[in-house]
Q: What sequence folds into this?
């Protein structure tokens, strides 16, 4: 059965689609510039998201940034998100021109070498740079992907963005009960895209160091790699001065099981998270600081350490049995 759509959801969708249709009529630079302005307006209007972003930046950088610098960084992050959102209705346009006109790709040999191993590829990143455009363009490199995404609350928007994400041949997979389908995709030698930087509620996450703080993190990426043998390829992006997207694939991380599953999951998850943190530190304005990344915290040092082990074990069992933890 299709989910019911409320009047507010219908109105919000129609208003959003009208804005997207208007953006699609503009040149790319103009559309992104307008999107950036809308992101800055959101910074002014949403006190809750502004507060979370400023708190996160203060906790991550401490005394290295004064109050004015933290606010400047937060505004830039909101503006960056607006640019990404405004780019969605331009996806079809991006696919009609040569790839080199849209993006400058580095390290694609790492992606191809990982794919050549024949075990599929787990391509991972965070809500950093233009993660959606990276996914849209990857099939043009000869490695199509299955995108693991969170269902949107408004089903009309969910269908709309699923269509946009699939324009280049990607397939879309809901993160709910996703493990069996992910393993099938890997056995089919596809790439699977996973974002690893969202807070995980309940006991489904493991606490990993992120900017010097314990962050509840999904062990799904590491568990899937250990279970399937698929290499993990990091990818990051940011806008270049000429308007193109700079995309950087990094060398693959190969799973090397030691026989201690929980320790292996923790070590791989920490390694991948640390790579993301290093990239965010280089260009902090490109990350989604408004997400309440550190919302879930250990209940105390001893309890937290125990929860990490229990959570990892449960999540490993969930994935092996096809049950995805809440994120």
A:
């Amino acid at each position: 059965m299709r989910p019911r759509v409320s009047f507010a959801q219908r109105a919000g969708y129609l208003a959003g689609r009208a804005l997207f249709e208007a953006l699609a009529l503009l040149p790319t630079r103009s559309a992104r510039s307008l999107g950036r302005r809308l992101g800055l307006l959101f910074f002014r209007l949403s006190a809750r998201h502004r507060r979370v972003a400023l708190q996160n930046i203060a906790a991550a950088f401490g005394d290295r940034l004064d109050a004015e610098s933290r606010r400047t960084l937060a505004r830039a992050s909101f503006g960056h998100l607006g640019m990404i959102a405004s780019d969605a209705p331009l996806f079809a346009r991006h696919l009609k021109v040569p790839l080199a006109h849209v993006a400058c790709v580095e390290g694609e040999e790492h992606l191809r070498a990982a794919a050549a191993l024949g075990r599929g590829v787990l391509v991972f990143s965070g809500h950093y740079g233009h993660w959606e455009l990276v996914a849209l363009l990857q099939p043009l490199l000869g490695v199509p992907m299955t995108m693991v995404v969170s269902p949107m609350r408004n089903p009309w928007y969910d269908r709309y963005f699923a269509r946009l994400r699939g324009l280049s041949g990607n397939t879309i997979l809901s993160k709910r009960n996703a493990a069996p389908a992910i393993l099938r995709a890997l056995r089919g030698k596809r790439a699977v895209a996973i974002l690893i930087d969202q807070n995980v509620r309940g006991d489904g996450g493991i606490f990993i160091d992120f900017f010097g703080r314990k962050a509840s993190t999904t062990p799904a990426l590491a568990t899937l790699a250990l279970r399937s043998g698929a290499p993990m390829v990091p990818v990051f992006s940011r806008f270049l001065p000429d308007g193109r997207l700079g995309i950087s694939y990094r060398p693959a991380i190969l799973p090397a099981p030691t026989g201690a599953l929980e320790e292996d999951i923790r070590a791989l998850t920490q390694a991948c998270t640390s790579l993301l943190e290093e990239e965010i530190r280089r260009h902090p304005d490109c990350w989604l600081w408004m997400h309440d990344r550190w919302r879930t915290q250990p209940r105390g040092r001893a309890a937290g350490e125990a929860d990490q082990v229990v959570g990892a074990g449960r999540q490993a069992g969930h994935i092996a049995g096809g049950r995805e933890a809440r994120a």
